[in-house]
């Protein structure tokens, strides 16, 4: 027995060593194979993850500065993590495991940080160093999220804040916004009268009881419990928290365009299309104490606009179609159908006859799990939007061109519909800084659509009414707006937003910057610090080189 033990004691280390060598060889071969696949897929890599609904990390630019401070190495790490072979499949498996553990409760609320910027990482609004990435389509995503189980009927005036129980695990690759809130950045304007216009009065008479209750809710001050996203009956609903003051801030931004752009160029019209969120139509009565009134917010916005600005009554047009899919369930955007009803409201305020839906060719692409799913990883949202319908005008022919390059003046083909894409990216192919559609409408007029992502689904409906439809995303455009107006002969201005972004001070300030002719897109806080450091270093160098007295 002792000999057997000794024999095995002599033999076992050799077997273990061989096994370790074999394991190391297998791991080496596996990593080498993955490396070969990684390199082979380099040219075909996506810029946007449709599964995660976000822009993937690009290969970092090599400079002496980022090499020394370590940001180049971190950039490579982020790039490899985002483009790892079979990553989409691993992500889906991980999501399946996470979302099927424990019990899923209906009526839970997700606290969303950064909702005042419309689920966007505004740090991505900086001017690109070259024009090579202009054909990519950054997808809007949000900041961090916390899941909290909250009683929807919480007292409006309570100081109690929801207690976070679990950190959401799906909002990967998203940075926290450093921007001020809408209330902090909105400019001071004259107070809006508290009276209600005939249009809103009529809409209240015909609105369902839940809408009337929301419209009656006061919204002239921030509420401690406002905010978050409600997960209700398989749909995500944003808890709106805009105020009269933040609504007036958006009107001020539009008025800046009237004074700086429309009047100097003798434009024929300026119109505004701002849609409420899906919550205005679908939020249950028990949760309305957590929101402010979007109807009142839009009324405050309308009253603060210059008299010549035409304001589309989107709520009245949409409220008779609540049984139709006007909004995505897993995403904060509206659908192509929802944008169509907003188009009808715009046509009416413009004195035009809107085309019937039959005048458009209805087509569909596969849906995706949208921004709400990215933030919450809620299992009921993963397959909530099976398709994304879009409507192609049949009464006109269209030739589309985007403008790229260091000055956004180099033409490149780009369609109004990305028919090989999925989800909301089918509209304009994502957020393109400058896109022009030339049509056979023969109206002698050119529209300039000033928008964020909500305008992507809306802009195609204008094609039958204008010879040119020029689409500008105010977040990403840095070509001088006066140059754009004169180059394409713009005759009409159209603004398109949702209430969640229209009430954001960051969006409002960016709109004013573009109207005043800024030559750069949004500057991040990091970029501002870098510029200040360079200026300080230059001043110090100049001071040191100055001859002593």
From TrEMBL:
<keyword id="KW-1133">Transmembrane helix</keyword>
<feature type="compositionally biased region" description="Basic and acidic residues">
    <location>
        <begin position="130"/>
        <end position="142"/>
    </location>
</feature>
<dbReference type="InterPro" id="IPR025945">
    <property type="entry name" value="DHHW"/>
</dbReference>
<keyword id="KW-0472">Membrane</keyword>
<feature type="transmembrane region" description="Helical">
    <location>
        <begin position="21"/>
        <end position="42"/>
    </location>
</feature>
<feature type="region of interest" description="Disordered">
    <location>
        <begin position="121"/>
        <end position="216"/>
    </location>
</feature>
<feature type="compositionally biased region" description="Polar residues">
    <location>
        <begin position="174"/>
        <end position="198"/>
    </location>
</feature>
<feature type="compositionally biased region" description="Basic and acidic residues">
    <location>
        <begin position="154"/>
        <end position="169"/>
    </location>
</feature>
<dbReference type="Pfam" id="PF14286">
    <property type="entry name" value="DHHW"/>
</dbReference>
<protein>
    <recommendedName>
        <fullName>AlgX/AlgJ SGNH hydrolase-like domain-containing protein</fullName>
    </recommendedName>
</protein>
<keyword id="KW-0812">Transmembrane</keyword>
């Amino acid at each position: 027995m002792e000999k057997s033990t000794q024999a095995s004691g002599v033999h076992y280390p050799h077997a273990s060593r061989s096994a370790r060598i074999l394991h190391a060889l297998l791991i080496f071969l596996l990593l080498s194979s993955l490396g070969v696949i990684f390199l082979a897929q380099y040219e075909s890599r996506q810029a946007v993850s449709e599964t995660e609904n976000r822009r993937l990390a690009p290969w970092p630019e090599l400079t002496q500065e980022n090499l020394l401070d370590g940001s180049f190495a971190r950039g490579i790490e982020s790039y490899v993590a985002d483009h790892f072979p079979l990553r989409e499949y691993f992500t889906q498996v991980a999501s399946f495991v996470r979302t099927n553990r424990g019990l899923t409760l209906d009526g839970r609320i997700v606290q969303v940080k950064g909702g005042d910027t419309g689920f966007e990482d505004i740090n991505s609004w900086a001017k690109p160093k070259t024009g090579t990435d202009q054909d990519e389509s950054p997808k809007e995503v949000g900041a961090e999220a916390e899941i909290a189980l909250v009683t929807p009927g919480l007292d409006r005036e309570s100081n109690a804040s929801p207690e976070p129980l679990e950190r959401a695990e799906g909002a990967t690759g998203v940075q926290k916004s450093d921007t001020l809130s809408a209330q902090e950045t909105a400019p001071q304007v004259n107070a809006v009268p508290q009276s209600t216009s005939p249009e809103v009065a009529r809409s209240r008479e015909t609105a369902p009881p839940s809408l009337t209750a929301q419209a009656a809710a006061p919204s002239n001050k921030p509420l401690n419990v406002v905010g978050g996203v409600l997960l209700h009956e398989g749909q995500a609903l944003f808890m709106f928290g805009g105020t009269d003051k933040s609504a007036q801030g958006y009107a001020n931004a539009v008025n800046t365009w009237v004074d700086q752009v429309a009047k100097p160029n003798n434009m024929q019209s300026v119109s505004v299309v701002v849609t409420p969120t899906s919550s205005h139509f679908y939020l249950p009565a028990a949760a309305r104490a957590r929101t402010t009134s979007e109807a009142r917010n839009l009324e405050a916005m309308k009253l603060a606009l210059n008299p010549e600005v035409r304001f589309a009554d989107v709520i009245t047009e949409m409220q008779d179609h609540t049984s139709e899919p006007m909004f995505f369930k897993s995403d904060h955007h509206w659908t192509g159908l929802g944008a169509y009803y907003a188009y009808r409201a715009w046509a009416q305020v413009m004195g035009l006859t809107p085309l019937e839906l039959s005048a458009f060719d209805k087509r569909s692409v596969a849906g995706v799990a949208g921004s709400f799913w990215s933030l919450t990883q809620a299992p009921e949202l993963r397959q909530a939007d099976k398709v994304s319908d879009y409507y192609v005008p049949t009464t006109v022919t269209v030739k589309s061109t985007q403008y790229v390059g260091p000055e956004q003046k180099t033409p490149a083909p780009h369609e109004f519909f990305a028919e090989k894409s999925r989800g909301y990216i089918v509209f304009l192919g994502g957020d393109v800084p400058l896109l022009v559609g030339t049509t056979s409408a023969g109206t002698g007029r050119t529209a300039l659509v000033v928008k964020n992502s909500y305008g992507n689904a809306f802009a195609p409906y204008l094609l039958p009414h204008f010879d040119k439809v020029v689409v500008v995303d105010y977040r990403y455009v840095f070509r001088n707006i006066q140059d754009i107006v004169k180059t394409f002969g713009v005759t009409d201005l159209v603004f398109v937003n949702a209430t969640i972004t229209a009430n954001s001070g960051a969006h409002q300030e960016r709109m004013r910057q573009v109207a005043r002719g800024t030559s750069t897109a949004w500057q991040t806080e990091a970029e501002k610090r870098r510029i200040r450091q360079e200026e300080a270093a230059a001043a110090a160098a100049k001071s040191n080189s100055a001859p002593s007295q």
